[in-house]
Write a structure and sequence with these properties.
By secondary structure, this protein is an alpha/beta fold. Helices cover 39% and strands 16% of the residues. It has 12 helices and 9 strands. The longest helix has 14 residues.
């Protein structure tokens, strides 16, 4: 691998110059905050454990700050960008600043939530500065759609990072925590200050590491069935599971029967359960002929 030029990464002046030339202003609608600090993007790549043989998918590359740092370290990088102007400009930025790696870069101009395939070899890692307003749905969609993603590191709003990494019993444990844990071992991997972004956001950011489970959770229930139970349990999180799952099971009595069969107390609440316990409930419900509603994938921000 040839060494990139020392000034290949984007600094604050480069970001503002690029944005000015493109007439780009970060929009709140898309949750855009561009990283302007080269040390931060290198730290993200380091923390992600990106290897020379990795095929990395990045969601929301923006002006290319993290993309360039990923290209320094990975074998290939595919970036998924929804914004028309940013998507059109990014290949030229890569070609100008890191020409020796340009053929290792691919751009997909699309909404990440609609991406079902990517060019080239399947991705082995996901590294992204995810827009705050869609972070969890995008993360879960990518993990589900691309099972070859072994390691993920995402930068998200600190509050979202806490929810994703929370364990049972935590006040912030909820739908994102359980659904992320279905796919991976999840942990906080650091904090990011506000001053490395342009514009500086009004919230702190955090890094979340997700390492895909070596063995999927053992259950005869499908992901959809398990997630339906999770959604129902947290839709009314102050209620006992007997009450919260009544709609899912068809009645409170049917919910209690499924819970007892799964070895879970009907008086417990969703925030106390592991993903394995949710899977057992789904399995018990399925065997008892309950008809769970399909999961609402947009509910994961709860």
């Amino acid at each position: 691998m040839s060494s990139p030029t020392p000034d290949a990464l984007l600094g604050p002046a480069d970001i503002r110059e690029l944005a000015g030339a493109l007439g780009v202003r970060p929009t709140k609608q898309r949750g855009q905050n561009f990283v302007i600090d080269a040390n931060t993007v290198r730290r993200i790549v380091r923390t992600a454990g990106v290897r020379p043989d990795d095929v990395v998918v990045e969601v929301g590359p923006g002006l290319g700050s993290l993309t360039l740092a990923l290209l320094e370290a990975a074998d290939r990088v595919t970036a998924v960008e929804i914004d028309d102007v940013l998507a059109a400009a990014l290949p030229a930025t890569i070609a100008a600043r890191m020409p020796e790696r340009a053929e290792r870069f691919a751009l997909v101009h699309s909404d990440a939530m609609h991406v079902t395939e990517l060019p080239g070899p399947p991705p082995t890692a996901l590294v992204a500065n995810l827009p705050y307003n869609v972070a969890v749905p995008v993360l879960l969609h990518m993990l589900d759609t691309f099972p070859g993603i072994e390691r993920t590191l995402v930068m998200v709003q600190a509050e979202v990072a806490d929810r994703l990494a929370a364990g049972p019993g935590s006040k912030v444990y909820g739908v994102p925590s359980v659904k992320a844990n279905w796919y991976a071992e999840v942990k906080r991997a650091g904090a990011i200050g506000r001053n490395v972004f342009w514009p500086a956001p009004n919230v702190d950011s955090g890094l979340v590491s997700l390492v895909r489970r070596a063995e999927p959770i053992r259950t005869t229930a499908s992901r959809q069935e398990v997630f339906a139970v999770v959604d129902a349990a947290f839709a009314q999180r102050r209620k006992t599971l007997r009450a919260a799952l009544a709609g899912w099971a068809g009645s409170a009595a049917a919910a209690e029967a499924a819970l007892v069969a799964a070895g879970v107390s009907p008086q417990a609440r969703g925030e106390a359960l592991t993903v394995e316990e949710f899977a057992r409930i789904a399995e018990a419900g399925s065997s008892r002929g309950t008809a769970p509603a399909p999961p609402n994938e947009e509910s994961v921000q709860q």
